[in-house]
Structure formats: C-alpha cells, structure tokens
Amino acid sequence: GDGGDGTPPRLSFDAIATSRQDAVVVPEGYTAKAFVPWGTPILGSYPAYMDDGGNTGADQSMQVGMHHDGMHFFPLEGSSEHGLLVMNHEYVDQITLHPNGPSEGPRPLDEVRKEMAAHGVSVIEVQKSSNGDWEVVPSALNRRINAFTVMALRGPARGHDLVKTAFSPEGTRTRGTINNCANGFTPWGTYLTCEENWPGYFHVRMDPQPRHLARYGVTGWQGYHWYDVLDEDSDLYTRFQPSESGDDATQDFRNEPNGFGWIVEIDPHDPDAMPIKRTALGRFSHEGVVFAEPKVGEPMVFYSGDDARFEYIYKFVSKNLYQEGMTGNDLMDEGILYVARFNDDGSGEWLPLSMGDDGFVAKMNAAVGTTVGSIEFDEPFADQGELLINTRLAADIAGATRMDRPEWGAVCPRTGMVYFTLTNNSNRTEDDTDAANPRAANQVGQIIRWQEDGAASASTFQWDLFALGGHLEGSEQEGRSLVADAALTAENIFSCPDGLWFDGRGLLWIQTDMSGSMQDGSSDHGDFGNNQMLVAEPDTGLIKRFLVGPTECEVTGITMTPDHKTLFVNIQHPGDRSEPGDFTSHWPDGGSSRPRSSTVVVTRDDGGEIGIA
Ligand code: FEO
Ligand code: CA
Ligand code: CA
Ligand code: CA
C-alpha cells in the first residue's frame, strides 16, 4: 500500500542502529544534507555568516535564527519543489552565539540585540535547484519575526486590565515572541508558533507574585538578563524586569509577562501582516498546536499541550462552524477551551474552562478561600479574560489529569485519532501514578492517543497508550509497542519522545529530546545513542529508527513536500555542552567550526517517496 489505494502505508527501509557520530545518519539509500543553518542570510543586505561569532545584532536580524524547532512547508501553487519554509527558533546558546560566550556583568547592548534577534520565526522562500539541492530564494516574502516584533492580542484577553502596559495602555498589543518550541499551521494557510518556556525570561520584582505569575514560576531561569543592558534603559529591554511603579498598570510593565504564553498566528504569505496572539487558546507553556481535520458545518478543533511536569493537555472548540474561506478571526477568537481528564478505565472527559459553564463556575466558587496547588485562591476570576490569563489555575480547579510533560500532538489523517508525546517526568512518585502516566520517576516517556466519542468537538473520548519509551526488554523502564504487544528492540528503543507528526499518508514520525547528561552516554541513557527520529505504522505498532542526529543535539521539527519526496527535519543545539572555544560538535560545517542548529533535507537516492516502497 502507498496510501493512495486506501490501504495503510508500510515501511520499506532497514532501520538504522543507534549512533554516537557527530553526523546525521539516515538509512541505506537515503541522503541527508544540512540546509539554512543558523546565520544563513535571508534578508536585507544578506550579511554573510561569520564562523567566529562576529555577526552583529543587526546582521542576525537579517539571518536565520538560532535553535531551529517546529517547522512547516507551505507549497507555492501546490509545488513540491518551491515553497515557504517557516520555522521556529526556540532559544539561544550564548556560548556559540557570541565570539567568546556572553560578557560578564551588565550586558553589552549588541549582545542583547543579537540574542533577541536570534529568537522567533524565519519565513524563507526555498526552491529545488536544477542540481537537486534546495536553495534560498531572495524574496520579498523572506521575513524574520523576533523578540522585538510588534504583535496584536486578540480573543477574550484583548484589552483586559491584566494586559495593559506602558507600551499598550489599551491592552491590544505586545512586543515579540520567545521560546517558540513546536508549531502548528491552519487549513487557511497560516503558521502557528507556540510560546513555551517564556517564564524563564522575566525577572519579576513583585513579592509576593500575583497568581497569574506565581502559578507559572516566572523566575527568569533562562538567565539572559535582557533588562540589564549597559548604558541603556529603553523599555524594549527593561520590560523583562517588571515591577509596579504605582497604582496605574499603564505606567509600567507589571503586565508584560501576561503578553506571553500564547499561540501566535503568522501569515507567511504577507510580510507586512502583524502576528496575532490568539488568547482564546489559553496561556501556558504551549509546546505545539494541531487541528482536527475541519468539517464544513462543524466547529474547528485545536489541541495543545503544556510542557511542564504535571501539566495538562487542552482542546479548543470554536464557536463558529467551519466554512470554506474562514480564517483565524472567525475560528480562533471565540470558543471554549477544555482540559483533559484521562480516567483509569480508558475513558476520558473534556472539562470546560469557561465562565459561561455552570459546572466550572460552581467548582471555581467552591475553591475560593482554599489553596489550589500552591496558590491561595482568594477571589474568583472576574471574567473569561482573567480565566485565560490564569489557564493553569483554571485547569487545576476543573480537576484535569496531571501529565508527564505533554509535548507535541498529531492527528492521524486515516482515523482521526489524536496522539501526544509525554516526554518524561522524573518527579512522579509511585503514589502519584495513574493509567495514563503509569511509571514513577519516569525518565523515558510514553505516547498516548485517543479517539473522540463522535465529532472532534465531543466532550468525551476513549484513550490508550500507543508506546512506552524505554530500554531493551528486562529493564525496569522497558520500551514497548503496546499496539504490537511487543518489547522494543535494538531497531527502535527510544527515550523522551518530543516531536510527533503525521505525514499525509498516515505514517507517525517520532523525534526524541533526551536533555542534559542523558545526551553524552555517561548516564543510564547510554544505550539510546544520540537523539533520533523514528517512524511508526500506527495500525500495526511497528516502529523503526530512521535518523540519528549529531553530538548533543535534539531532533525536532518536521515537514514534507506534498509529494512526500523531500523531508525537512530540524537539528537543534548540536554541541549543547560546548564551552567558549571548546566546541563539542562541529556539525554541520566540520573541521574546527562552531556548531550550528540547522534544517536537514532528506531525500531518497532513487527519487522515491520517503519511508515506503
Ligand atoms: Fe521546547 Fe517542550 O520542548
Ligand atoms: Ca519540544
Ligand atoms: Ca523537550
Ligand atoms: Ca529544545
């Protein structure tokens, strides 16, 4: 079956072994080439990439950003050889970004400019050249969106008192997007970028922190100190150290962090279009976002995970019913946000987070005067805008299931089943396990899936586990394909599933992110090799390892051309444990070069479709 005749696709390559090479490894008969690495010029004066870290902040604003993550290929006129490649740049590694790492003490202005410019999103027109290699097209559509870019707020939190700042006293705008991890896209041709670990950028000077900050742990742990710029006190930078200057929130930046934690919609086909933060989809550490296949006359449905330990999986159901020609303003500003409860018997429920829902309001009113998690819930939410700014707290009140770090989701084009990675949770205790999160001190993660009871907008579902990450058979945390009812083998053991994506034929791609000491083989993760990408037949549960990345990278971000003959994959933070001048990876440029996050173009040497016969 090739997916064209109605039968499920069947994998046709030989699985590769784990690897510790500083290289991208793919199966026999396939070729992988680096493309648009960090620093590639795409705009303006097209400043050349400098391997000594010498590019300025202004240069960086015209170059591809750092730490490639979620990505989508938008074909131009349906082409599989010409399109817009749009990708996230999650964060920066200061050691490889600057010539000798970050300066000590107050930050030189241009270091901060470069770090902020290396964040965000790249829109790049790309095409396949006559020799078969892909190239950047010098195009008016090429664009960098970064931590400076002005964005609109829409949905129920637009204009709310809690988003008013000295920059936007009306509460309708904010500046920049940061920590853009996984992505999404829409049926109407726009790109969605998701704000994940934004609490790490704000050094809040309010003690105690209000609940809309305290519940998110807004502690500045990324350590960039963008507010602390030498001889510069522009609010472009000082806003990252919010405090209260008096009674009037429109005179300071106490609410600046409330402009982050959202899903951002970008029109890649219009370089002048202002990005829009869609507050109706909730505020949390959005990993990614994925839609259920739209059906005319039914609500539009999006799923999104909150990647932190013991956080939740959410579903947004639009108020308006989908019709051809509708866009984000029709389908992403009004609707109901739900949070998932996974019951131990395999059933599940979507719990509404809505001031218009009597059940939610009753739970909220009962919670007033109690401690919810670690938060003193001293007064009810005033309105839906405040509820959404406090999405995590609302989900706590609703009684959702606390998950093992929800990362990417994917919807099967054949069955409509929704799959999510749960990457790991070392803090889960034996007393706290449940059927969906079954392992204590979970180092290896699992993949969960569900089928809605009827339409995608249904309020109940049936779930099971698709696979358990883990080691070879006999280990305490053994890997297992639960669909195949078989232990994982040397061909497919994996740990810390993160990226997850269905291609158009119905193959499920799984990307891993073992972090920190898990990457170097010194821990008990040595048997997994470098981070990798596998692919599964969802109906049989067969899983095969397809790609292994270079030293200390994470494999994340995936998209394909419509003909399934070109696969784009992102390699993030190769050489993650480098020190200034001592790079632990030299991928992709080789020699003594500094490592660069990069896209990889994978093709089959015989020109055939990726993965299948
Ligand atoms: Fe940025 Fe949850 O990975
Ligand atoms: Ca991720
Ligand atoms: Ca991750
Ligand atoms: Ca990452």
Notes on the protein architecture:
The chain is mostly beta strands. It has a single domain, classed as Neuraminidase (6 Propeller), CATH 2.120.10.30. The chain contains nine helices and 32 strands. Strands 13, 14, 15, 16, 17, 20, 21, 22, 23, 24 and 25 form an eleven-stranded antiparallel beta sheet that branches. A six-stranded mixed beta sheet has the order 8-7-12-11-10-9, with no helix packed on it. Strands 2, 3, 4, 5 and 6 form a five-stranded antiparallel beta sheet that branches. One calcium ion (CA) binds next to loops.
- CATH architectural label: 6 Propeller
What gap, in angstroms, lies between the N and C termini?
Answer: 8 Å
CATH superfamily: TolB, C-terminal domain
The residue-averaged pLDDT reads 97
Main CATH class: Mainly Beta
Q: What Rg, in angstroms, do the CA atoms define?
A: 23 Å
Total count of domains: 1
What class do helices, strands and sheet pairing give? Answer: mainly beta
Largest sheet entry: 11 strands, antiparallel
| Helical residue percent band | under 10%
**Alpha plus pi helix count:** 9
Q: Which descriptor suits the 3D outline?
A: globular
Q: Tell me how many strands there are.
A: 32
Low-pLDDT residue intervals, each spanning 5 or more residues: none
According to CATH, the fold-level topology is Neuraminidase
Bound molecules: MU-OXO-diiron, calcium ion
> How much of the sequence is in beta strands?
25-35%
List keywords for this structure.
613 residues, mainly beta, eleven-stranded antiparallel sheet, six-stranded mixed sheet, 9 helices, 32 strands, globular, binds MU-OXO-diiron, binds calcium ion, PhoX, Tat (Twin-arginine translocation) pathway signal sequence
